[in-house]
Write a structure and sequence with these properties.
This protein is of the alpha/beta class. It is built from 19 helices and 18 strands. It has 2 domains: 270 residues, Rossmann fold (3-Layer(aba) Sandwich); 188 residues, Rossmann fold.
């Protein structure tokens, strides 16, 4: 199959979150299974600067397809042999800041134009597959998140038979904009109604895709069920229930680069049969961050965006109890809500012997925290899939998580009433997003840590888990084949 994936970010060229990791790893895994994959991305300034070699495929798009001069470039995705198509439209993408926001952290006001143009370009490429131009025919289009979700709608409006898949990475981000963009984006005015593009009086990119895509996937089975409920459906639960036959959840995998046996960011490598060097990574992390170097300390790591979704307020409300035990150490890496950053910094200054807060993002430190911590904290209120908990288990660092979405699908709860010999737990799970439940679960984890036989069993169980991408890729293959047989 010739499959075109379109995405607004991709590792290692442009990244704001897990979407970039999935947008790289899934196509690579599909290619390894024999599929013919290409990727389509916007030509951001930073992305183009990160590529060593590009060549021109098309010097322009036909008049009326895009709102500004644009061309199609191609390159290889770094570290792979997957061809990358790039929409080079300087008026929309040659600017500083990130893919969605300026240097001040404000959304670009023309985001609907930017990603609407990206969708129009993709739809045109799919519909107008001239071998003399592209030298490649597209059997199926796979779209990722709201920035691409207008494309399945455009293909339906243009009566193009190529099947489409839309993956929801986070339903909370929907791409809802003023209805005035309908005309600017060249969308048919008659489609602005409840059963197509309209969502509470606005144009919704994501809803357009949910209505018109041939298949909808989410990044974990539980999240696919959760978003069909009023509590988790972000106002789209009714539509998702209506389209439940087309909706499925396929659990993400993790990149094979995340491996404690050869991770270049670690000072000491280890694996499930040689775990002892993990303790050396703990000591290195403690020393690097100015904490007491002590194997008896219960070192807790947190690497996250600092937001309500990630449950950081639950952590802040629990710190008095957690840090009352002088043997507990906390290391946090992340950025986000300014008030949360301020409150964490206060704890850093209040208990510098127990707490280290690193604001921002540091790839090397993130690996070292996940490898060096004893426990990984990830109490998200909702989590479509989550990758960090899978990294943590792979590195023998049991996670403490809220029972939601992909966290519930990946972490098996430790049950203290079960003997170590029969224990299947890979981490610690609390049921309700309240600080008192987080504190209670933390006490269970700490008690387990001080029982080496039980703790080592949980660590071993966690490291036994496999989160390889080939499993997910095979499930997508089955879905693709099903769609192509229906067309």
């Amino acid at each position: 199959m010739n499959i075109l994936h379109m995405t607004s970010e991709i590792h290692p060229l442009i990244k704001t979150g897990g979407l970039a990791d999935v947008s790289r790893s899934l196509p690579v895994a599909l290619q390894s299974l024999g599929e013919n994959i290409r990727l389509f991305v916007p030509g951001y300034r930073n992305l183009l600067a990160a590529l060593n070699d590009t060549h021109e495929v098309m010097d322009s798009f036909p008049y009326g397809v895009l709102p500004a001069k644009a061309r199609l470039l191609a390159a290889d995705l770094p570290g792979s042999s997957i061809p990358l198509w790039i929409l080079d439209c300087p008026a929309l993408f040659d600017r500083g800041g990130g893919p969605y926001q300026d240097d001040e952290g404000q959304d670009w006001p023309d985001n609907p134009l930017r990603f609407g143009a990206f969708c129009r370009a993709a739809a045109w490429l799919v519909q107008n597959q001239h071998p003399s131009i592209l030298d490649w025919s597209i059997d199926l289009l796979h779209c990722h998140d709201w920035q691409t979700a207008l494309t399945p709608a455009l293909l339906k409006f243009w009566h193009c038979p190529v099947p489409t898949v839309l993956t929801i990475h986070n339903l909370a981000f929907q791409g809802n904009f003023s209805a005035s963009w309908i005309n600017t984006l060249g969308l048919p005015a008659q489609e602005f109604h409840l059963e197509s593009l309209e969502f509470h009086g606005q144009l919704s990119f994501l809803k357009a895709g949910l209505v018109h895509a041939d298949a909808i996937t989410t990044v974990s089975p539980r999240y696919a069920r959760e978003i069909q409920t009023p509590q988790m459906g972000c106002g789209l639960d009714g539509l998702l229930r209506h389209r439940s036959a087309a909706l499925s959840g396929i659990l993400n995998g993790i990149d094979e680069l995340w491996c404690p046996d050869n991770d270049p960011h670690l000072t000491h490598h280890y694996n499930i049969t040689k775990k002892a060097p993990k303790a050396l990574n703990k000591a290195h992390l403690q020393q690097r961050l100015g904490l007491e170097v002590s194997p008896q300390a219960f070192l807790v790591g947190l690497v996250s965006r600092l937001t309500l979704q990630k449950g950081i307020d639950l952590v802040l409300d629990s710190l008095d109890d957690m840090l009352a035990d002088k043997s507990v150490q906390l290391v946090v890496l992340g950025s986000g809500d300014l008030d949360m950053e301020r409150r964490l910094a206060h704890w850093n200054s209040r208990k510098p012997d127990q707490v280290h807060i690193a604001l921002g993002f540091n790839e090397v430190l993130s690996h070292q925290i996940i490898a060096g911590a004893d426990l990984f904290l990830m109490p998200s209120r909702f989590e479509p899939c989550g990758l960090a908990q899978m990294y943590a288990m792979t590195y023998g660092t049991p996670p403490l998580v809220h029972h939601t979405g992909g966290l519930a699908d990946t972490v098996t709860p430790y049950q203290p009433e079960i003997s170590p010999r029969r224990q299947q737990g890979t981490g610690f799970v609390f049921e309700t997003a309240h600080s008192y439940e987080l504190k209670s679960c933390f006490k269970i984890a700490k008690s387990c840590f001080h029982n080496p036989v039980e703790w080592n069993k949980v660590v071993h169980n966690a490291m036994k888990k496999s989160f390889r991408w080939d499993r997910a890729a095979q499930e997508y293959q089955i879905l693709y084949n099903k769609l192509l047989k229906l067309t």
